[in-house]
Design goal:
single chain, about 290 residues, alpha+beta, Fructose-1,6-Bisphosphatase, Chain A, domain 1, D-Maltodextrin-Binding Protein, domain 2, 2 domains, eight-stranded mixed sheet, five-stranded mixed sheet, about 30% strand, globular
Length: about 290
């Protein structure tokens, strides 16, 4: 590739950013349940299916894209090229549609065919549909935050890092299903007067709070679900790549999420991300 050649990574990021306003607008009238399940056995919202189709069409037609895969479809779309491979959660936290709370779109751009380990990511990021629409994007070890308006994108912060003093925590899964060692760790985090609870039920909203204020988010292994809930390709890897690029850590309980070898496109992974010190303590607690 020469300097003047189109860069498929840039094109994928720009296409997702440009599509965000349309996705946000398209949620109106699509908040109901569809009569279908995703490959993880969850009932899909009409908006999940619609956003997936919109992104599948746009991303798989970009020059250089070899595959499009999504949490909302069982099969990978073969897009014909071989430079980058795109994994998307079109609407993360879509259960929040009913109550009109925050949700997001998550993407990972890999340089290996899917399913791929997080070490094959070359960029990742998320769109957050909050009071305004924002994007956080990691590439080449650096994180940039944008505000999105219509089809446009304005940089609001470059070289974003997690604040040194962690402030917020949010932990998913039903508390009675947490393992005892994880529960004991949570009690320690809660009892620190410097910490406060922030949990909104959409991973991307909760992780964005950690990126903004410092802290920890986890959707851990559960007694009735040993690999937790979140999907490695579509959620775990992209989030881990971005939080690590922002100077934080990710862990599946014992190692960086980026080191987890996938066995299936829809694998789940226990996810813990946040300030290094808190993830180090978590791994020690789960030993
Ligand atoms: P959702 O099912 O609404 O799409 O993986 C998806 C996710 O939301 C995350 O965004 C969120 O953190 C988690 O599931 C919440 O799940 P539960 O409410 O089932 O615990």
């Amino acid at each position: 590739m020469t300097a003047s050649d189109p860069d498929p990574v840039d094109d994928v990021v720009a296409t997702i950013a440009r599509s965000a306003a349309e996705i946000r607008q398209g949620l109106v009238g699509r908040r109901g349940k569809a009569d279908e399940e995703n490959p993880s056995g969850e009932t899909q919202a009409e908006a999940d299916i619609w956003a997936d189709e919109l992104l599948a069409d746009r991303l798989s037609s970009i020059d250089g894209v070899g595959q499009y895969a999504s949490e909302e479809r069982s099969e990978i779309i073969d897009a014909g090229d071989d430079q980058v491979y795109v994994a998307v959660d079109p609407l993360d936290g879509s259960s929040n549609l009913k109550s009109n709370n925050t949700m997001g779109t998550v993407f990972g751009i890999y340089d290996e065919p899917l399913p791929a380990p997080g070490s094959a990511l070359v960029a990742s990021g998320w769109i957050l549909y909050g009071p305004i629409t924002t994007m956080a994007c990691a590439r080449d070890g650096s994180v940039t935050k944008y505000e999105l308006t219509g089809g446009g994108r304005t940089v609001v912060e470059e070289d974003v890092t997690l604040p040194d003093d962690p402030l917020v925590y949010g932990f998913g899964g039903r508390v009675p299903h947490w393992h005892d060692d994880f529960r004991a760790y949570v009690r320690e985090i809660e009892s620190d007067p410097g910490h406060k609870l922030r949990y909104g039920g959409a991973m991307i909203g909760d992780v964005n709070q950690v990126l903004t204020y410092g802290g920890i988010f986890a959707y851990p292994a559960l007694e009735d679900s040993p690999r937790g809930k979140l999907r490695l390709q579509f959620e775990g890897n992209p989030i881990a790549y971005l939080i690590e690029a922002a100077g934080g850590r990710s862990s599946d309980g014992t190692q960086s999420i980026l080191e987890v070898e996938p066995t299936d496109l829809h694998d789940r992974v226990p996810l813990h991300v946040g300030n290094t010190e808190l993830i180090d303590r978590l791994e020690a607690a789960l030993e």
